């Protein structure tokens, strides 16, 4: 992409002559935007920790009693100490950890990963070209079309197959960008243009799904996801989940709106009838903190009843389309 931008910038400054075709155009464009909301690292690598800790299951002692003993054998102080030693649970389990669990469990856990979200961009605009400059106003819609889907199953393909984790991300945004810039002829029928301006943006992302971490924790001893604080059966000493602490059918929705800035660089080619084909790189910068109400017991325990998160509506779009002479 850097080479492409360098080429467009070079053409912009090396182009000679004024723009050959002044006038008005109705533009229709389509394109792609990658890593929507900049959530790719969260989805694939870092995840998101819960406010709740899991209980350690090592033999490290608190007094004379180890954390691997049944809860009935521990005092409240000892249980709290063992829980503090367990580290944070994960509300969002990253895909790299699920892949590692798949390999480490001998395929008892299967990971189905979708990586970062990719969005389809639809663009409609009006452009007025003057002598060496242009003005543009339009509207854009961005919607997730790929990525953002993560699943994990236990004993897949067997009669007791269980889907214990599902992360479903979604994203949409509306943008109304305004531009003013330069437009320079290149050759007989081409031109290079670049502009900057401001935008009004509105949108956000959703995160829904389920994380039943008690299932792999209880059956395999594998710690991943919100699996409550892990109680122990008083007789057998086996791990038993505390009811109501899993994330079940969570549906968090974050929405923001406001002003931002934007810039574009592109090339177009005049056709015989006066219309133009174009290709451009457009960057929108917009976003702010959004809030959402959590709906599951695990979500409330891990994040709180209402949580705030930075919502990024920014991104670079790769667009091509058609400008209709008016």
What does this structure look like?
- It is a single chain.
- The chain has helices at 2-14, 40-46, 76-84, 95-104, 214-220, 297-303, and strands at residues 23-34, 48-53, 61-62, 65-66, 88-92, 109-112, 118-129, 133-146, 149-154, 162-186, 190-211, 231-232, 239-240, 247-270, 276-285, 287-293, 306-312, 315-325.
- Strand 14 and strand 15 form a beta hairpin.
- The protein has a single domain, classed as Porin.
- It starts with a helix and ends with a strand.
- With 326 residues, the protein is an alpha+beta fold.
- Mean pLDDT is 79; it is low at 11-20 and 225-244.
- 16% of the residues lie in helices and 53% in strands.
Task: For this entry, give a set of tags.
53% strand, 8-stranded antiparallel β-barrel, single chain, Porin, alpha+beta, 326 residues
Short description:
With 326 residues, the protein is an alpha+beta fold.
Number of helices: 6
Please give the order of strands in the largest beta sheet.
1-7-8-10-11-14-15-18
Secondary-structure-based class equals: alpha+beta
Mean pLDDT: 79
- How far from one another are the termini? 32 Å
Q: From the structure provided, what is the oligomeric state, counting identical versus distinct chains? A: single chain
Using DSSP, what is the number of strands? 18
Q: Uncertain runs with pLDDT below 50, 5 residues or more?
A: 11-20, 225-244
- Could you please say which CATH topology applies here? Porin
Strand content of the residues, in percent?
over 45%
N-to-C order of helices and strands: HEHEEEHEHEEEEEEHEEEEEHEE
- What sort of overall outline do the alpha carbons produce when their principal axes are compared? elongated
| CATH architect. name | Beta Barrel
Proportion of residues in helical segments: 10-25%
Under CATH at level 1, the class stands as Mainly Beta
**Backbone CA Rg:** 27 Å
Q: Biggest sheet: strands, sense, closure?
A: 8 strands, antiparallel, barrel
Number of domains: 1
